Amino acid sequence: MICSWIAFSLGPQAITPRTMIGVNALLSMIFHFGSIMKNLPRVSYIKAIDVWMLSSMTFVFLSLIELAIVGYKLQMQREKDHVIEKVDRIARFAFPAGFSIFNIIYWARYGFKVG
């Protein structure tokens, strides 16, 4: 999950490495989620691990969407554009901030249950 944020540090021109990092992070999250679900009993309600894994996968998927937007903008404009760098810079801080807010909410909701 956090390794997908490394892609934001590579810059907008590093499309191939960013794609590899994002896809590998998403595939590892899917594999990890599948192995967890295989070992847990089936229940009719949503478990805390479901919320955690699906939210983490959503953050990784959104980083791939950001990559697609940046790649599309790069192909449409040949000259250096400051908007692309601004989107990357915003994403570099927005994704960790959003994940931190999610962590606070998640642990407040699921982390302090006793019994």
Automatic annotation (TrEMBL):
> Which UniProt keywords are present, listed alphabetically?
Membrane, Transmembrane, Transmembrane helix
* Cellular compartments per GO CC: membrane
Question: Could you cite one Gene Ontology molecular function of this protein?
Answer: transmembrane signaling receptor activity
Tell me the domain of life. Answer: Eukaryota
Note the Gene3D superfamilies from the entry: Neurotransmitter-gated ion-channel transmembrane domain
Query: Where in the sequence is the signal peptide annotated?
Result: none
Cite the InterPro entries for this sequence.
GABAA/Glycine_rcpt, Neuro-gated_channel_TM_sf, Neuro_actylchol_rec, Neurotrans-gated_channel_TM
- Residue ranges annotated as transmembrane are 21-40, 52-72, 93-112
Domain spans labelled Neurotransmitter-gated ion-channel transmembrane: 2-78
Which is an annotated Pfam family here?
A: Neur_chan_memb
The keyword GTP-binding is assigned to this record: no
This protein is called what? Answer: Neur_chan_memb domain-containing protein
Species source reads: Caenorhabditis tropicalis
